[in-house]
Amino acid sequence: MPKLPEDFVERVRTSTNITDVVSKYVQLKKAGQNLFGLCPFHEERTASFSVNEGKQIFHCFSCGRGGNVFTFLMDLKGLSFPEAVEAVAKDDGIELPAGVTTQATNPKHQQQQPLIAAHQEAAQLYHHILVNTKLGETARAYLKKRQISPEMIDRFNLGYAPGNQVLQSFFSERKTDYQTLRKTGLFVEDQQGNLKDRFSNRLMFPIANLTGALVGFSGRLLQPDDNAPKYLNSPETEIFNKRRVLYNYATARQAARQEHRLILFEGFMDVISATQAGIENGVASMGTSLTEEQIYDLKRVTDHIDICYDGDTPGQKAIARAVTLLEQTKQFQIGVIQIPNGMDPDEYRREFGAAGFQNIVKSGREPVIKFRLRYLRTQFNLSNEAERIDYAQQATRLIASLDSSVERTVYLKDLATDLDLELASLQEQCDQDRQRLEHEQRPAHSKVTPPPAAPQQREQPRYSRVENAERQLLTAMLHDSNVWTQVINRPDFNFVHDDYQQLYLFAQEFFRQHAEYDSAEFSDFVGERHLQSVLAELEMTPAYDYYSAQAVADCVKIIQQDAPLTAQIKTLKHEFAVAEQTGNELQQLKLATDLIKLQQQLDRLKATDD
Question: What pTM was computed for the model?
Fold first, then answer.
């Protein structure tokens, strides 16, 4: 397979902005010179993932990952380098050179790819049965009744699973590996090891993961059956975890970049119906309450969430649960879209059309406090005096939590009118509640609560004197040709730590082939993921004084003076550990004495420089 030409890789890299690619997966906000967001590679509450547009690199100050636009996609999607280049090129409309193809080399990606491929083939079969066969007539009639257009059927790749073991026969004809089929979750295995279709007589909703790869299904019964669940999801597999899945997330996050919000629906059909009405930023959980993982993935895309569940009593209860879960994070601005007359979103779209649905999404959006007050009201019998008073007291406590005095006044007036009570008495109660809340929230050690810190670059790890000098010197060498020349002309010079020495050696070869230094290009040249992360961390470090000859000389002196002693100390510590394990006390005593002498020499050197 021909390699991707270097000039083509460079053309693709320079044609894109890493921020545009990363922003599809991470909500970025400006903080200083960089953009910050929640890291997509691990869960965190404080943004430590940073993108530098000038250098076209990213780095997470928490987990240490870093690199350029290609390494970002490699880490996020498990792609090989050629696949990552192809993905970026495709987004920019750049065609691959003639005769060049890409092939997966990432081990995890290779392991998962057969499972994903099996789901894609199953989805194609189910879709074909739904759209083109007599077996799919019942499902087609159901979708027609629900007014789901052929375009939406195709867009969401809806399908139908008949009850005649069609999927097992389909893969048998293709001689698909048995062990692969067992791992897909598409089949149920009996005691004899025979595989039977897990889904039968169900409308099929393919489920994609956060990056858009097909990883599971949810099947809906079309005929009531007391012995079977209405919805049946794929089981947990290597590629499917329903706690991490949000239906339509991979597509909706693109629309969320323009709308600056996501709409959380209760069911798959609501998402599809909303999309048919022109609402592109809808997602749904997998039939359960929101999980911490799903909430974290929502936060990566936006901090504005609108909840649009059913208008009936169970739907209102579900809204209350979702609001509570989202509010606990203290990271979202939340709105509630109320569907009138107890209808669900899909029913409303069918009754009032696309224009009516779009209007309710905009005009029906209300603040959380308004929803909470109305939902609270349903919990009381207001014809009973005791319950009426209890409701008034709980309502004023909710209103007291509002920071805006204007908002508090508006809702207190509404409450006074609703309950036929004096506004002054409600205002007095609200003021008391507010004082109580402020007292409860005030830290015990301080009367003033400090404002939350803005996202910023995390404090750098503390390095030894030698390593700090190495980091400063290597960064200066890469960015300043005068410093590079000054150091490279020292034939006896080497870095102490392997990571910096390897980067130094890579840089020597890089500068033989390139006249100028470019962070993102050098990252590709290095290739090794660990070293790419080390390089990204160096590049994200606040700039050193590259032009100070004295600073360069000081760094070289520290490295060359301290390095031999540091290396000896490291060796003796290892020998001491071995002697300790073998119980050789005499050897331990000798090594301890030698370690003390070397450490004293190192301390004297530091004192002299200070």
Answer: 0.72
